[in-house]
Amino acid sequence: MSSALSTQVGFLIRRSMLRTLRQPAAVIPSITFPLILFGINAGGLAAAAQIPGFPADSYLDFIFAFPFIQGALFGATMAGGDLARDIETGFLNRLSLTPVSRVALLAGLMGGVVGLALLQGLVFVTVGVLAGVQFAAGVGGVAVMLVLMALTALGFGGLGAWLAVRTGSGEAVQGAFPLFFVAIFLSSVNLPRELIAVDWFRAVATWNPVSYLIEGMRSLVITGWDPTALALAFAVAAALVVLGLTAAAAGMRTRLGRT
Amino acid sequence: MDEPNTGPAIEVEQLVREFKKGPRAVDGIDLSIARGEIYGFLGPNGAGKSTTVLMLATLLPPTAGTARVGGFDVVSEGAQVRARIGAALQEAALDPMLTGREHVHLQAALHGLRRAERRRRADELLERVGLTEAAGRKVGGYSGGMKRRLDLALALVHGPSILFLDEPTTGLDVQSRTALWDEVRRLATDEGVTVFLTTQYLEEADQLAGRIGIIDHGRIVAEGTPAALKAEMGAATVEAVPADLARRTAVADVLEQFGEPVGASDSRVAVRLREGPQGLTDVVRALDAQGVAVASLQLQMPSLDDVFLAKTGRSLEGSRAEEPDHDAQPEPAPA
Amino acid sequence: MSRSSFSAVALAVAWRALHNAVTRPALILPSIIFPLFFLVAFAGGLSRVGDVPGFDFPGGYTAFVFVWIVLQSCAFTGAFMGFNIAADFESGFSRRLLLAAADRRGILAGYVITGLVRSTFTALLLFVAALVSGMRLEGSLLDLLGLLALGWLANVVGTLFALGVALRMRSVQAGPLLQTPIFLLMFLAPVWVPLDLLSGFVGAVAGFNPITFAVEAGRSLIAGSATGLPLGYGLLALMALVLTGWALTGLRRAEAAG
Predict the structure, then answer these.
(1) Chain segment B238-248, per-residue pLDDT in tens
(2) Residue of B64, B31, B50, B76 lying closest to B194 (CA atoms)
(3) Rounded to two decimals, what is the model's pTM?
(4) ipTM of model
(5) What is the count of structural domains for chain A?
(6) What are the chain C neighbours of A195 within 8 Å (beta carbons)?
């Protein structure tokens, strides 16, 4: 990266982080909401660990991947909303008048997404460990979990940014949030796929890429180092990142519209 | 740099912009604006002012026609154009969560200024627009006038030679407006910056612009210096209100010796003075000689509103509130 | 104030709110889609939870979660009513209502009626969806009506709570304050397993949550073994009574604020 480009990207990441961190009303729900749902699920479904064939001793460990995925989704939706607001207010036009490249604009935005994801992830790990979650893969597992979460946030963030540049509306980005939410629940988030009794649901969860992200993260907690689960998770995350960023970059080209 | 030093700062031929739904926002305009000139682009909401600015600033591709800004084509040489222009667009688009100084630093970094230069430039610009004290505060707490001033500072970060100001004083109080006018004048006079200013305020165009173009429904309907445009409207008018309404006819008889009647009503009489403003003393003497008393007597010079009325059939001042804002935020047509 | 002006106001407000819901379905869609989605996610994804040792509900897992989903959807339909009134305040419509209504308590009653109609609609839709997805019914028609009555009570509780909040805040910014308490109350109950299989924090809280007893009463009805009904209905009725005061004082606040 040339020094001019890295300065640009650095400033844009800084801006994206500052704008987020200076709005506690936006950051706090992105941390507390996943934790609340985690608590409700962990307590309400604790008995599920007694289903014959359940892969973990404790449901707390099993469900711990959930806040990471939901948190990533939250942060990414915020980033999409932020970009949409830049379009609505004309701030993006202002940026377009500078020699800044599309890549730098996108990198700045995504840098903010990843930064927030890591912040959320660290809080989740801390709360989880305090609540008694044990990482079978140890400290290295925590690091890999955070990397997977950051990649997931990056991928979802790309899709959020794509929606923002396509629609130019913060409402449209917010409106898509429940769709992502549904995608999380129609996966193996609450029970392992082999314990989903209803055929069509199991089929949906098997085709749903979110299942593999969750299973990869979960393996670090309940199994240890599971090469297959991790390979699948990283493959899905990478595909999501490529898809999200390509769509966002293409959309950005149209939206910038500058000659 | 391959800077073409000769020729006009802005040169536009038959520029057109169509949107998918709706009429032509800009319908074949021609412009030639000299370096260092302040050009006022005057028209009601929806006339096509902002669309023109977006095209000249390379943010919106024209449907047809050509435009050169700073000697470069806005379509094929966008980057060169952008390097030479600064723009304060209508929205005063700022991030409420960043401080004024952070805005200037961000803008300067994106323009590729080095660290020391960024600092120097930020101090200088914030000082110039009177925001030094407020520089550390978040923009969300700024007043409308402060936002506009910051907007101007941001447009100037990279020392552009051509400045686009899209309705820079809309919604500002008189004081902020005057301060902004002073700064724009200073830029043109001291630094030789070409200013392309859109406005829906007649007074602003009159005060600030060396030349004015009146745009209506996407077409330029009149162009010239404010004085020339007003002169086109002809002589001054004098308007009298009789002290005793019963003697209105007597007043009218006197006044009509000095010019053609215009826009009279039951309570007042007005004529366009054949001899120009000098004729007023003769009017007073004649009224006195006839022994007709008047409650008021006013001399009115032709205004830009008269020009606007004559060229478009509407009064600009009256049309402002009713026109829908067609061109405020045009959607770029996705490919 | 006469009885007739109260009911006239109530019916007028209800007519207008229902008319709104029918002409702008996008507004009420979330309150229908969420419970249907819960039904799909719980009955479809979690059915093996019924195999946990000690889980012996006679009606099967779909019936087990169906009861909670009905009560949840009724309570949330009530909470969504708060959005209506908050939005009415932002648009100035509520001020006109307050001026025009001879008996302003009728306005509250109007929203309650609207909530009841809408929640009945959603509950019937859920019932059909649950039958289609294979729910077994052990209880009689009377038991089913008993479940619907529990849903109505939950709906009135939700509506009165939301009215109290909305009348105090008078802005759609109140959104999270309308939903979050009801969300927590509903989820800190035996959602997926019976009370005695809950553990930890959720288990501890659920033991004191009135919703727990309403859910258990509803589950006993659908299993055809009605038990714990007085506690289930009684606690909801008590909540409704307390929240009537909350909504009426909210109305006074709104009146005082003009």
Answers:
(1) 888 888 888 88
(2) B31
(3) 0.81
(4) 0.83
(5) 1
(6) 48
